[in-house]
Amino acid sequence: MAQLRRTPKSGNDWTANELCAYNITVTSETKQLHQEAAVVKFSAQLLRGLEYDDDDSIVFIRRAIPFLTCGENSVAQIDVCIMDDNEILLLLQEDKILTSMEDPEPQIIAEAIAAFALNNRKRERDPNLPLCNSIMFPCITMAGTMPVFYKITITAALSKTGTYSETETRGMRPLPSRLEILRCLEAFKKFLGK
Question: pTM of the full predicted structure?
Answer without folding.
Answer: 0.71
